[in-house]
Write a structure and sequence with these properties.
By secondary structure, this protein is an alpha+beta fold. The protein has three domains: 35-64 and 215-259, no CATH class; 96-209 and 271-318, Immunoglobulins (Immunoglobulin-like), CATH 2.60.40.10; 322-553, Rossmann fold (3-Layer(aba) Sandwich), CATH 3.40.50. 26% of the residues lie in helices and 25% in strands. A hairpin with a 2-residue loop joins strand 8 and strand 9. One of its GO terms (biological process) is nervous system development. Belongs to the NXPE family.
């Protein structure tokens, strides 16, 4: 202090000015540096301190996925290997369609029974599918997306077929023969292998093709910005990663506003132009088109003869999860599906139960079904949007509680208050559980257009919560609804292609394998039914799904 006291007064002022100018220059330089690097800046809102991170590749690696532990990384790697789709051809530009798969030229043939005699219940029937291109030439590689079913409309019978890719342009569709009478084979080309190449490319290069919006409000100021888990780093970003699950979510920071002023989230839309390969996605030509039979498309099935063994015409070991007969779903190799045809039967099953439902609108269908089927189940007005929830219904007399809540982002929905964005894993951690508790979730439709790693991580988070729930309350019934096939146009193909859904279906089954959980295989229940495919299956299919759910919960009493 003595040194400074000896300086002239003007010298002190000069020194202070010099320090101020120096600090100002540093500040300006920081501003300029920020403007140069604005495309790589991430702002972390309260309660976490602001930090800056550098993305590895601003073109294709801008999806900020949840980090995995070494064990989870290995699991993901093995999982991806187990569900890997065959390699598909690269696409020339301009596209040369003549070499692409053509359902009109392709055929399937029912192979003869391996042993002489009549087809009988319990046999495995195999149809050989041969794919040809638009010039009528046989394809030499695999990767086409095919669906197959065996059905009898008169009997209300149907079962999904298992398709095997021989990687040489031919495929096998294998069916279990499960009813007497006629059984007709149906094979559909969902996508040619060339279309899979484009679906893959778009998922890598355009993972943000569906985008979301959030509204921010502070005093009289309101702004809207784009949000996503895949957000191109072109401006400052607010990080809304969930602190409990680590599930990531980001929004561009609104100008002159804090990140903690966000009030809502909603579907922003989709990019208009995603592909120059439109000809690969033509409804009625090469997308969701039946493949004709080269001979008879049906066989007659007889009762199983005593002393005769079943004939397995294929090396396929997997069995269908069930089949329809007289319009009723019958499960195979698991819980017997009972018929809950009256409100009293459903009420008796759910008496004293708390049912928690989480997921997308296909799960909300179940809530709506129960709400309509049970006259004494009264829905409470929580002043929430019907499509979002939370929704709640009570039957006081029978002590039945049913609740639905949508899953956390991504959500292609109407505006949702930010405070209502709840992750399934967090919700499960808040469930006490027990023998009177049923937890049901279905999460798939809003994830098809994202990298599959994003979906795998979400399922891993949910699985961890399920494990904790079953550990503290082993009597809790946990049921998972899978995704299902659906119709779509070219724009829909890049959002909810059946190829995307099928890959995620395989991931879901692998991740929850071995846990004490039950699956409602919506994929096969929609595929095997005679009704048209739909994102939201029609009431007869929903009724069968509810019967499967209730059969997991209890056996019918009094109806």
């Amino acid at each position: 202090m003595q040194v400074y006291s000896r300086l002239p007064k003007c010298g002190c002022i000069f020194l202070l000015l010099a320090v101020f100018v120096f600090i100002s220059m540093i500040y300006v330089m920081d501003i300029l540096e920020f403007q140069k690097k604005i495309n790589t800046t991430y702002i972390i809102p309260y309660p976490t301190a602001a930090i800056v991170t550098q993305p590895v590749d601003i073109h294709h690696n801008f999806c900020k996925l949840k980090p995995l532990s070494p064990e989870e990384t290995l699991e993901e790697q093995l999982l991806l290997e187990s569900i890997a789709w065959p390699e598909t051809p690269s696409l020339p530009s301009p596209l040369f369609m003549n070499s692409s798969s053509d359902p009109a030229h392709s055929t399937f043939t029912i192979l003869p029974r391996k042993r002489e005699g009549q087809w009988q219940i319990g046999d495995k029937l195999e149809a050989l599918i041969k794919i040809y291109d638009l010039m009528g030439r046989p394809k030499k590689y695999g990767g086409d997306v095919l669906l197959a079913r065996l059905h009898n409309p008169t009997l209300g019978a149907g079962v999904a077929g298992q398709v095997v890719d021989h990687l040489n342009g031919s495929y096998s569709a294998v069916f279990s023969l499960l009813w007497e009478g006629s059984a007709q084979v149906e094979v559909t080309l969902v996508h040619p292998s060339e279309a899979v190449t484009e679906l893959r490319r778009v998922n890598i290069e355009e993972p943000d093709r569906i985008y979301f919006k959030s509204q921010f409000r502070s005093s009289l100021l309101t702004r809207t910005t784009t949000c996503n888990v895949c957000l191109r780093p072109t401006q400052p970003v607010c990080n809304y990663t969930d602190l409990r699950t680590g599930e990531p979510w980001f929004c561009y920071k609104p100008a002159n506003m804090s990140c903690d002023t966000r009030i809502s989230n909603y579907n922003g839309g989709s990019k208009a132009s995603l592909t120059t390969m439109e000809k690969l996605f033509q409804s009625g030509i090469n997308m969701k088109v039946p493949i004709p039979a080269s001979g008879p498309a049906n066989v007659t099935v007889f009762p199983k003869q005593k002393g005769q063994s079943e004939v397995n015409s294929s090396s396929v070991e997997s069995e269908p999860s069930g089949y329809y007969y007289q319009g009723v779903w019958r499960a195979l190799g698991g819980t017997t599906v009972h018929q809950f045809n009256t409100s009293s039967a459903i009420t008796q099953c759910l008496k004293g139960k708390q049912v928690y439902m989480y997921g997308d609108s296909t799960m909300r269908q179940w809530f709506e079904y129960l709400n309509a089927a049970l006259p004494d189940l009264k829905e409470f007005n929580l002043h929430s949007h019907k499509s979002i929830g939370p929704l709640m219904a009570l039957d006081y007399a029978n002590n039945i509680f049913v609740r639905y809540r949508t899953h956390g982002p991504p959500l292609r929905t109407v505006s949702v208050p930010s405070m209502e964005l709840h992750y399934i894993a967090n919700e499960l951690d808040n469930v006490v559980g027990g023998s009177n508790t049923v937890v049901v979730f279905g999460i798939w439709a809003h994830f098809d257009n994202f990298p599959i790693g994003f979906y795998i991580r979400r399922l891993m988070s949910i699985r961890s919560s399920v494990v904790r729930l079953l550990s503290r309350a082993p009597g809790t019934v946990v049921v998972i609804r899978t995704g299902n096939p659906k119709p779509y146009t070219i724009r829909g193909a890049f959002v909810n292609s059946d190829w995307y859904t099928f890959q995620r279906l395989k991931a879901l089954k692998a991740i929850f394998k071995g846990l004490n959980v039950h699956l409602v295989d919506a994929w096969e229940m929609v595929l095997a039914h005679h009704l048209p495919h739909s994102m939201h299956p029609q009431p007869p299919i929903i009724k069968n799904m509810i019967n499967v759910l209730l059969s997991y919960i209890c056996s019918p009493k009094g109806g």
